[in-house]
Design goal:
alpha+beta, 29% helix, 3 helices
Length: 158
């Protein structure tokens, strides 16, 4: 895994970019996307000394799994996953080639399936969707440490 640190010798850790990106093309690679997220967060803690809670690891794995699964299911071609540490949170960004933005459905305990986006927006600090010249980009943020208020997310959709 390539963790990027820009100008490592001259800037403090908080000003350096810590990120990793990978492209995924098959549904069998969804497990690899989760593994990449787990490994990235382990390096963020071990190599860069930033606190990463167990809750953050679990939530990031869940979000990566849901977003990459949706990209593989609904968009032709590959998807791109980027994980980046920014201001005490890990930003999870997934790009795919489908220009239609997904719609989060309201809670319905009788509906089977299609709860992924509902879950993602509930557990993330922020959630954004943008159309791109080709496809769309979905970006979420998950706090690295434990939320001091005990809130696992915030469910804010922007």
């Amino acid at each position: 895994m390539d963790l990027t640190g820009q100008d490592e010798g001259s800037r403090p850790l908080v000003d350096r970019l810590i990120s990793v990106s990978a492209a995924f093309e098959g549904s069998e690679e969804i497990a690899q996307a989760r593994d990449l997220a787990r490994s990235f967060l382990a390096d963020v803690h071990a190599v860069h000394g930033l606190p990463v809670s167990g809750r953050a690891v679990g939530v990031v794995e869940l979000v990566v799994s849901e977003l990459v699964t949706n990209a593989r299911k609904y968009a032709p071609g590959p998807c791109l996953l980027t994980l980046e540490v920014n201001e005490g949170a890990v930003e999870v960004t997934v790009w795919d080639s489908e220009p239609r933005l997904p719609l989060a459905q309201g809670a319905d305990p009788n509906r089977v399936g299609q709860h992924g986006l509902e879950i993602v927006t509930a557990v993330c600090q922020s959630f954004e969707m943008h159309r791109e010249p080709v496809g769309k980009r979905i970006k979420t943020a998950i706090v690295l440490g434990n939320d001091p208020l005990g809130d696992v997310g915030g469910g804010q959709v922007r």
